UniProtKB/TrEMBL annotation:
PANTHER family: HEME OXYGENASE HI_0854-RELATED (PTHR35176), PYRIDOXAMINE 5'-PHOSPHATE OXIDASE FAMILY PROTEIN (PTHR35176:SF11)
InterPro entries: F420H2_bilvrd_red/Heme_oxyg (IPR052019), PPOX_F420-dep_Rv2061_put (IPR019965), Pyridox_Oxase_N (IPR011576), Split_barrel_FMN-bd (IPR012349)
Organism: Actinopolymorpha rutila
Entry keyword Oxidoreductase: yes
UniProt keyword annotations, A-Z: Oxidoreductase
Transmembrane segments: none
The protein's name: Pyridoxamine 5'-phosphate oxidase N-terminal domain-containing protein
Molecular functions (GO terms): coenzyme F420 binding; oxidoreductase activity, acting on the CH-CH group of donors
GO cellular component: cytosol
Top-rank taxon, per record: Bacteria
Length: 131
């Protein structure tokens, strides 16, 4: 597992496999959009998702570059980090702007489709740092 410099290796990745941990310690990997803002990487997710619940209980995460469909290369590095939930509206707007800038139309369409499907709970950010 890599440390802080490892997070920088993920800056240009459009997607990463984010691993969070169940109470049992079992890892759960999910493909997510990622963006850097300042000294942290950010992930956006639904407020009521499993990964959000798991991060609330256990902030440990692991990140690996992956494809849009979650395919992780055999030699893909794994970066250990910690995540925290961000609720500050100013930070949220700044980071969501970074997501729109980095991921463009694809991100905007995904967010529009999500709003159309009316998933409850809204969106949150996970701030990921080397811990």
């Amino acid at each position: 597992m890599a440390d802080a410099p490892g997070l920088a290796l993920l800056d240009d990745e459009p997607f990463v496999s984010l691993t969070t941990y169940r109470r049992s310690g079992e890892p759960v990997a999910t493909t997510v959009w990622i963006v850097r803002d300042g000294d942290a990487l950010y992930v956006t997710t639904g407020a009521t998702t499993g990964k959000a619940r798991r991060v609330r209980r256990d902030p440990r995460v692991a990140l690996r570059p992956c494809s849009r469909l979650g395919r992780v290369g055999e030699d893909a590095p794994s970066v250990s980090a910690v995540a925290e939930i961000v609720t500050d509206p100013e930070v949220t707007e700044q980071v969501m702007s970074a997501f729109r800038s980095k991921h463009g139309v694809q991100f905007r369409l995904a967010m529009a489709l999500e709003r159309f499907r009316k998933k409850g709970g809204g969106r949150i950010l996970l701030r990921i740092t080397s811990g």
